[in-house]
Amino acid sequence: MPSLPVVFLIDDHDAFSDSVVQLISSIGLGVERFASGGAFLQRLGDCAPGCVVIDLCKPHLDGMRVLDEIARQPLQLPTIVLTGQADVSLVVRAVHHGVVAFLEKQHASRTEILDAVQTALKLYSQRRAKSLRRQEIRARFAKLADPEQQVLHLLLQGDELVVQEKGL
Q1: Can you list the alpha helix ranges (DSSP code H) found in 12-159?
Q2: Cβ–Cβ under 8 Å, residues 85 and 59
Q3: Residue 139 has pLDDT above 60, yes or no
Q4: Angle, helix 14-25 to helix 110-143, in steps of 10 degrees
């Protein structure tokens, strides 16, 4: 049975974090709070399905390192940046890491935050389905005999003529 999605909130500003937790909880989603990027990274390998909301511009958070580590995961958690300070280079770096949304704390509405979370969770669901499908295909491929695997490789490479010539 799949776990319910969780929003992993990484921010060291208690009052702001409290309001984001309340907002996200209001639509029935679970939230796990982390005051530092390091604390989140210790938990990253066994995270439930979900997404990450992170403030990249906080001392001791090292947000770009968190984005690097998320990118190294086999099934990446979609990430939303919600920050109080941003410059163009930070936005560009975050976009290169594939963030779903980049929002400024002082300008983001409740609707924008919730829409970004819903988009991220939908993306996670799509990634998960694709990953499960790949696992299923690999498992089926592993059950094929060697000659069957060779034929499939040739077909996937577009070598139908070779397959026909060999009488496979």
Answers
A1: 14-25, 37-43, 63-71, 88-96, 110-143, 146-156
A2: no
A3: yes
A4: 70
What is the crossing angle of helices 88-96 and 63-71, to 10°?
Answer: 20
Q: Which domains does the chain have, with CATH numbers?
A: 6-136 (3.40.50.2300)
Beta bridge partners of 52: 8, 79
End-to-end CA distance of the chain: 41
Judged against a pLDDT cut of 50, whether residue 125 lies above it is answered with yes
Question: How far, in Å, CA of 71 to CA of 77, rounded?
Answer: 8
Q: Where on the phi/psi map is residue 167: left (φ > 0), alpha (ψ -120 to 50), or beta?
A: left
Instruction: Give the tokens for residue 85.
Output: 């300070």
Q: Which two tokens stand for residue 9?
A: 């909130």
* Residues with Cβ within 8 Å of residue 87, at least 6 apart in sequence: none
Where b means 16+ CB within 10 Å and e means fewer, 19-54 reads: ebbebbeeeebebbbbbbbeebbeebeebebbbbbb
How far, in Å, CA of 93 to CA of 86, rounded?
Answer: 11
pLDDT of residue 114: 97
Q: Find tokens 């403030």 and name the residue.
A: 55
